[in-house]
Write a structure and sequence with these properties.
The complex is a heterodimer of chains A (about 350) and B (about 600). Helix content of chain A is about 75%, strand content about 0%. Chain A is mainly alpha-helical and about 350 residues long. Chain B has about 600 residues and is of the alpha/beta class. Chain B has 4 domains: about 160 residues, Rossmann fold; about 80 residues, no CATH class; about 170 residues, Rossmann fold (3-Layer(aba) Sandwich), CATH 3.40.50; about 70 residues, no CATH class. Chain B is about 35% helix and about 25% strand. In chain B, helix 13 packs across helix 14. Classes of the chains: A mainly alpha (about 350), B alpha/beta (about 600).
Chain lengths: ~350, ~600
């Protein structure tokens, strides 16, 4: 098991490296970057001081160097003007548009994004598991039809619409807060119990909005998988043993149907991050999505590059987690190749 | 004084479909099982034998329901009607007083739970005892069903065990609560014959030790002859004959029973060599080996490579049939693939094919258009007629596809050819527009054969073409193979796991064991004078529908084990096998000189 984790981690590191190359290449594909664009604009107005500052920054961040060298400096495997200082050293670069180091900008929203997504994933799983299982066991009854209806609504309703509806009625009916990550008075406060509570309260609506589509898809998949498993011979064996129906379903076919369910964690994460951009704008959530959007539009390369890398890392971690969970849950994966078939 | 039977089933009827228009699948079946006896429910697929067994435990598949009847279980715990008691009560009986084992030990066990977990569950459900006690009972049962290492079996997952051990685990699960009645649904059908023999013996022995009754659901009259005290023969849901085993099998009263007995493949007493050995080889392969590389396990380590086929020689004369017989994992199907160039043999092998035109082709060196030409001459018939025909093509498309692929004839000529082929394999040309699902298993296999014939091949590789069919259908299909061979001067490479099936068709037989041929010879010599202990074991293990010929377990035990345990001069030294020695004309045996 330990070697398995080690091996997976090594592959993960290589994958991440390859992704970083891709990301750096892609964000540099359009001509120029935020600074060169700015210099061009300033040329027209002729503000010498600003031009000088921009040119200084250009040099400071080696954006005048060849692309390969830029990449190596960005990664931190090549000395830049300030020695080795890149992602590997924990220096994520500088956002020219916001005039602040990238790490300052993203720290808060990064944690909020991770937290929000964790809660969304939990929400998706905790609702999809019972709904999907019920729908399969009571296939073609009103329960099945009801979950299908909820599922189709979740899949078909645009997220931002759902967000608006939920905000309005949630506030009217039970006084759910409208928008934002937390109440205003906690904004720059250190973490406290009250602040945590406020964050949680603010999360309810976004979690439902972001998670509904994922939950709907997950429910459908679980239903289909479980229905396949329910007619397998080992279920009959359990029945013939005298196991009660509920226990039979939970212990045998449900566990078998969980595999694709678990394997989906890795896919779910990037979907949630990119899918929630619109919702974040509508609900003014301090997630990383809107920042990424504006960074991409203004060609703020260090900021967008880092965020993209972060989302990729999140996906890879999600896949690692789902692979490890699969190995824990399924002995066929855990023991594959180790002992083989003993004949 | 008569003791009342353990189980009395009266007028049991089961139907599918809606309440208003039920489709009966079991009709008014009655039988009784006495204590300690074995009753066999015999029938072909669709006879309702499995549904009868399942309805006793209330585990019918969705859509099926019991429409009438009673099944009174009368044991030391009292009298109950299994068909009318509430489900909650029935659940206490399932696995406790009445238990069941199934056909497919792999899919009938959950591969996510250890054997111990699954067996212990039954103990804990039906007995009030601690986990420790339950475990001890499991281990004791594992010991009784013949697990070499019960502790290890307890911790093992089903996929870590061989087929025979898996079925033992199923039996242990059914036995662990010491039931009064065990329903065995084709318990040995998925197993190799040598394994089948030992498992049947195990059930018998457990029955002797515990005085349990058994209902044996099977299609195999050989199994019936070896196991049953009483027989119920079912056909299309109705009982056609029932009574004590001996008279039913020896002097069957009903025509259907007679038909079943006659259709059961048997190793004939007298065999004649059909053809004089000639030197006109259609297929001549030597030094045939296939090694699959090991899989990576852990960091940089590899599992041992699998030697699927080792140093096999195939000599097939024109117009003859060579049967390759072996159990699962013997490499027989790999040999077939090597012949067709579906797999490449290890270097050093030579596969020579000589067509009717007298040109010798080195099959291993073929590629591109040469290979396509070669494939016109060699065709294959697969085992499963349900999986090998596309459900989305009608029969006409299926039969003309090979012609279209090879660009032979106009559309009209192709359709005429398809009609000819249908007639030739005994089907009506009027059915060309139908889809495969409209045909029965035997008819589908006829369609597969017609497809193989479409290109006018010289050699047909048959990979277990009858093992998915009912016995009576199997006999007809084998007959068709014989006719076609004589009409078209075909040569067959016939792969099978069953010696009795090939006895009537083959000219030469090669018996394979784990990648090596252990005995090869003309069919007469091999069946009348088998030399190798494994061949003898195979013959002894194949059950015959004859009460006078019970399984010879001593012979099975001598040959079915590891090759190191074979008596001298047949034993292997570690992995080194002795060579093939010619004991009489054309009859080769793997033994030390």
């Amino acid at each position: 098991m330990l070697t398995y984790i080690l091996r997976r981690s090594i592959t993960m590191a290589w994958t991440l490296l390859a992704i970083s190359v891709l990301i750096f290449a892609i964000i540099n594909l359009p001509d120029g970057n935020y600074l060169t664009n700015q210099i061009r604009e300033l040329m027209v107005t002729g503000e010498e001081a600003s031009i000088a500052k921009a040119k200084f920054l250009l040099q400071q961040y080696s954006l005048d160097k060849p692309l390969v060298e830029q990449y190596a400096i960005w990664l931190g495997v090549w000395p830049g003007p300030n020695g080795f200082s890149g992602i590997l050293q924990g220096d994520f670069g500088y956002s020219f548009e916001l005039d602040r180091p990238v790490s300052d900008i993203v720290t808060e929203s990064m944690w909020f994004t991770i937290g929000l997504n964790l809660v969304v994933v939990l929400f998706v799983y905790m609702t999809a598991l019972p709904l999907g299982a019920l729908a399969a066991v009571r296939a073609n009854t009103w329960i099945d039809y009801l979950t299908s209806l909820i599922g189709y609504l979740g899949l078909a309703t645009p997220n931002f619409l759902l967000a608006l509806v939920l905000m309005y009625y949630g506030n009217k009916a039970v006084g759910l807060p409208i928008g934002g990550g937390m109440a205003k008075e906690f904004l720059d406060e250190p973490m406290s119990f009250a602040k945590f509570g406020s964050i949680m309260l603010h999360m309810i609506a976004p979690v439902i909005v972001i998670g509904t589509a994922g939950m709907a898809g997950m429910t459908r998949r679980l239903r289909a998988n479980l229905m396949d498993e329910l007619s397998k011979p080992y279920v009959t064996t359990a029945e013939a043993k005298g196991v009660s129906p509920t226990r039979t379903v939970v212990k045998y076919p449900l566990r078998m149907a969980l595999n694709p369910f678990i394997a989906d964690i890795g896919n779910l994460l990037p979907q949630l991050v990119s899918g929630s951009v619109l919702v974040s704008v509508v609900m003014s959530l301090p997630t990383i999505g809107p920042i990424l959007l504006s960074a991409l539009r203004s060609q703020d390369i260090f900021l967008s590059g880092f965020i993209l890398l972060f989302v990729s890392a999140l996906t890879l971690v999600g896949m690692l987690i789902s692979d490890l969970l699969l190995a824990v849950v399924d002995p066929r994966i855990r023991l594959a190749g180790k002992s083989g078939n003993q004949r | 004084m008569t003791v009342s039977p353990l189980l009395t089933v009266k007028d049991l009827s089961v139907a599918f479909g809606p309440e208003r228009a039920p489709i009966p699948v079991v009709e008014n079946v009655s039988f009784s099982v006495r204590r300690g006896e074995t009753l066999a429910l015999v029938g072909e697929s669709g006879s309702g034998k499995t549904l009868t067994g399942k309805s006793l435990l209330g585990i019918l598949p969705k859509g099926a329901r019991i429409t009438s009847g009673s099944a009174v279980l009368d044991d030391n715990l009292g009298r109950v009607d299994l068909l009318s008691i509430p489900l909650k009560e029935l659940r206490k009986i399932r696995g406790g007083r009445v238990s069941m084992i199934f056909q497919e030990p792999m899919s009938s066990l959950s591969s996510l739970h250890t054997i111990g977990n699954q067996v212990m569950e039954a103990v804990l459900l039906h007995n009030e005892c601690s986990g420790g006690d339950a475990k001890n009972r499991c281990l004791e049962t594992f010991q009784n069903v013949g697990f070499p290492d019960p502790e290890r079996a307890f911790r093992a997952y089903p996929f870590e065990l061989s087929g025979g051990l898996r079925q033992r685990a199923m039996i242990a699960m059914a036995m662990v609560c010491k039931p009064r009645l065990m329903i065995a649904d084709e318990p040995t059908t998925a197993l190799d014959v040598t394994t089948q023999a030992t498992v049947l013996e195990l059930i018998k022995q457990l029955q002797r030790d515990n005085g349990m009754s058994v209902i044996m659901v099977t299609h195999d009259l050989g199994v019936v002859a070896n196991m049953a005290d009483n027989v119920v023969v079912l056909r299309k849901g109705k009982v056609v004959e029932s009574g004590p085993a001996r008279p039913v099998l020896m002097t069957p009263g009903h025509g259907y029973t007679r038909k079943l007995i006659n259709a059961a493949p048997e190793i004939p007493e007298n065999l004649d060599a059909r053809s004089e050995p000639s030197e006109d080889f259609i297929l001549h392969a030597t030094n045939l080996s296939k090694t699959y590389p090991g899989k990576p396990v852990g960091l940089g380590k590899m599992s041992d490579p699998v030697k699927a086929v080792q140093d096999v020689r195939i000599e097939l004369r024109r117009g003859e049939t060579l049967a390759v017989v072996g159990e699962s994992g013997s490499g027989k199907s790999t040999v077939a693939k090597l012949m067709l160039q579906a797999e490449r043999p290890d270097p050093g092998a030579s596969v020579m094919f000589t067509g009717q035109d007298g040109k010798e082709i080195d099959v291993a060196a073929l590629s591109g258009s040469e290979l396509i030409k070669f494939r016109r001459k060699v065709q294959i018939v697969f085992q499963d007629p349900f999986a090998s025909l596309s459900p989305r093509m009608n029969v006409c498309d299926i039969l003309t596809e090979p012609l279209r692929v090879h660009n032979i004839g106009t559309g009209r000529e192709q359709r005429d050819r398809a009609a000819d082929l249908m007639e030739r394999v005994g089907l009506s040309a009027d059915h060309l527009q139908r889809f495969p699902h409209a045909f029965s298993g035997g008819q589908r296999q006829r369609i597969s054969i017609a497809r193989a014939l479409a290109l006018g091949p010289e050699l047909i590789v048959c990979d277990e073409p009858t093992s998915a069919l009912d016995v009576s259908v199997q006999a007809q299909v084998l007959e068709l193979f014989k006719e076609l061979r004589d009409d078209f001067n075909l040569s067959y490479l016939f792969i099978s796991h069953d010696l009795a099936v090939v006895a009537d068709l083959a000219d030469r037989v090669a018996v394979m064991w784990r990648g090596r041929v252990v005995e090869e010879g003309p069919v007469k010599a091999l069946f009348n004078n088998p030399v190798h202990p494994y061949t003898k074991a195979l013959m002894a293990a194949s059950p015959e529908p004859d009460m006078e010929k019970p399984l010879d377990l001593a012979a099975v035990a001598l040959g079915a084990g590891e090759p190191q345990s074979w008596v001298e001069p047949f034993g292997y030294q570690g992995d080194d096998a002795p060579g093939l020695i010619e004991v009489e004309a054309g009859h080769f045996v793997r033994r030390a000189a």
